[in-house]
Amino acid sequence: MRKQKIEFEITVYESLTDLSENDRQLMEKAIASRAKAYAPYSGFQVGAAVALINGEVVIGNNQENASYPSGLCAERVAIFQAGAKFPGITIESIAITAASKNHSVNHPVAPCGNCRQSMLEYEVRQTAPIRVLFMGENGEVFKCNAVGDMLPFGFDSSFL
Ligand code: THU
Q1: Residue 65's CB: how many other CB atoms inside 10 A?
Q2: What is residue 5's predicted lDDT score, i.e. its pLDDT?
Q3: Which helix (DSSP H) or strand (DSSP E) does residue 30 occupy?
Q4: pLDDT of residue 118
Q5: How far is the centre of ligand 1, averaged over its atoms, from the C-alpha of 96 (Å)?
Q6: pLDDT for res 40
Q7: Predicted local distance difference test score (pLDDT) of residue 54
Q8: What is the pLDDT of residues 94-120, one digit of tens each?
Q9: Is 47 strand, coil or helix?
């Protein structure tokens, strides 16, 4: 037997203003999108913005439903829209931000497991990493270099 360590590196920025100009602008779009989330049940509003290699940006926010599981997270709204509108165009980055109507969110909010799995599909398909930037409403911003880093042992079509 052998033991194996799985490690990955993230970059931690003290705040939004420490990001590169491009990344800051992308996160600003996620923040603007967050304000338009439809989240009457949880009060937890999430915004996402996807940057494509052709310069386009596609936004998304969470869309809840009275039948709770029928709603969808911001990340998947954004990435599916990118896939629908710009099929085959490489996705470079996704910026994500969350805020709550009930408390302040000062810590980065990571994408849920379902969203990581959905994003991984695009990353594997395009054979190029998708950078993931995420934050709360204020405070630090975390940057991961690839979706696969955030989902070790991810499932992809190579298993089928
Ligand atoms: N949510 C997202 O939009 N993204 C995530 O990665 C986690 C959760 C949404 C789903 C639901 O509308 C609300 O946040 C509370 O879970």
Answers
A1: 12
A2: 95
A3: helix 21-34
A4: 98
A5: 11
A6: 98
A7: 98
A8: 999 999 999 999 999 999 999 999 999
A9: strand
Q: Which two tokens stand for residue 77?
A: 């709204």
Q: In this structure, which residue's CA is closest to atom 4 in ligand 1?
A: 73
Question: Structure tokens of 80?
Answer: 């599916």
Residues of the chain with pLDDT under 70: none
pLDDT at 31: 98
| Beta strands in 14-147, from DSSP E residues, in sequence order | 44-52, 57-61, 91-100, 131-135, 141-144
110: tokens are 């990571």
What is the reported pLDDT for 140?
98
Residues with CB under 6 A from ligand 1: 39, 42, 44, 46, 62, 64, 71, 73-75, 111-112, 115
Q: Judging by DSSP bridges, how do beta strands 10-13 and 141-144 pair with one another?
A: antiparallel
CA distance 137 to 139: 7
Domains parsed from the chain with CATH numbers: 21-153 (3.40.140.10)
Q: Which residues pair with 46 in a beta bridge?
A: 98
